[in-house]
Amino acid sequence: MGDKFRVGVSRDVITADGGTMFGPEAMKILEHPAVTWEFLPEKVAEITPAHAARYDALCLLTARVTRTTLGSPDRKLKLVARFGVGYDSVDVAACTERGVLLTITPDGVRRPVAASVMAYVLALAHRMVLKDRLVRDGRWAEKGDFLGMGLMGRTLGVIGVGNIGREVLRLAKPFDLKLIGHDPHLSQADVRDLGVVMTDLDTLLATSDFISVNCLLDDRTRGLIGAAQFARMKPSAYFINTARGPVVDEAALVEAIRQKRIQGAAIDVFEKEPTPVDNPLLAFDNVIVAPHAICHTDECMRMLGEGAFRSAVMLAEGRKPAHIVNAEALAHPDWVGRFHA
After folding, report:
1. Cα 102 to Cα 324: distance, rounded to the nearest angstrom
2. What stretches of the chain adopt beta strand conformation (E)?
3. What is the CATH number of domain 128-285?
């Protein structure tokens, strides 16, 4: 069979006990006769040309892949398999030009992220963090001053009705929320099964009681929600971002909270990560935060690992991986006529 297909796994998935976030079941996928694998020698923020020369496939969580990564003439790298669905850390154009396939793992995040959004909706609506604080501070007498918001008849607006946004809408149905969505890539006919009314962004912002951001980060969505958008929201509205931090102007969000232009927020992602401990968002008692990990459950991580590792094994076997982002790369001479069923 010749040299084995070499897979590198980023070290940021190793847990404190020496295992991985994915668990042993997912890791067994790499125990394949055509494959040899190892963790990268060190944690890196950016994959280097030396990594690209050593490995046929890289399974990555946070490390960036740039044009420089792929520029060396001795590059072996054929596949970048991302744990997750966002790929703003990867130079997709550079990958496509060089015939490097980029895959993602939508099956792993669909339900866990959507469930996290609904957890945020419930926590905000019932003011759970504040009520927890009332008990811890011995302020029981104040409980009547902090009523929550009932969900029946309220409106949930979903920005980005794709893999995760659709699942959010499915999970929201039993709560008798009115469902509206915005996605420039979809028509009403595309979502007829979801019970959602598609609308323009301004209408969604002005009429929603809960606004959930679920779009990818790209040139079109960077800074999509800023001061003008927060000004259109109801003063009673709650804002939820589990997508990517730069979709939102964070300074504008801080001002919207500070000036009570919105009721509160739940934020899993930040413009800069890790976010500084003096970030003003962390001082508000009506903002819930998480370290870009609100969806991290055993279920989620196992499925992320399985998806990325299967992509590597499929390529090692000569099969086309699932969930290729840059399908145009398949036209590269390295791939034409290469795949079998």
Report:
1. 6
2. 5-9, 35-39, 57-60, 79-82, 101-103, 155-159, 178-182, 197-198, 210-213, 238-241, 264-267, 287-289
3. 3.40.50.720
Two domains, one topology: 5-107+297-331 and 128-285:
yes
3-state secondary structure of 290: coil
| Mean pLDDT of the chain, nearest integer | 97
- Residue among 54, 98, 166, 292 flagged as catalytic: 292
Kindly tell me if the per-residue pLDDT of 330 is higher than 60. yes
CATH class as words, domain 5-107+297-331: alpha beta
234-258 pLDDT per residue, tens: 999 999 999 999 999 999 999 999 9
Which residue among the candidates 142, 273, 299, 338 is catalytic per the annotation? 273
Which of the following is catalytic: 75, 244, 310, 323?
Answer: 244
pLDDT tens, residue by residue, 58-102: 999 999 999 999 999 999 999 999 999 999 999 999 999 999 999
Q: How far is CA 242 from CA 100, 167, 191, in A?
A: 28, 13, 21
Global pTM exceeds 0.90: yes
Q: Could you confirm whether 273 is annotated as catalytic?
A: yes
Q: Is 64 a catalytic residue?
A: no
Q: Where are the domains of the chain?
A: 5-107+297-331, 128-285
| Catalytic residue check, 244 | yes
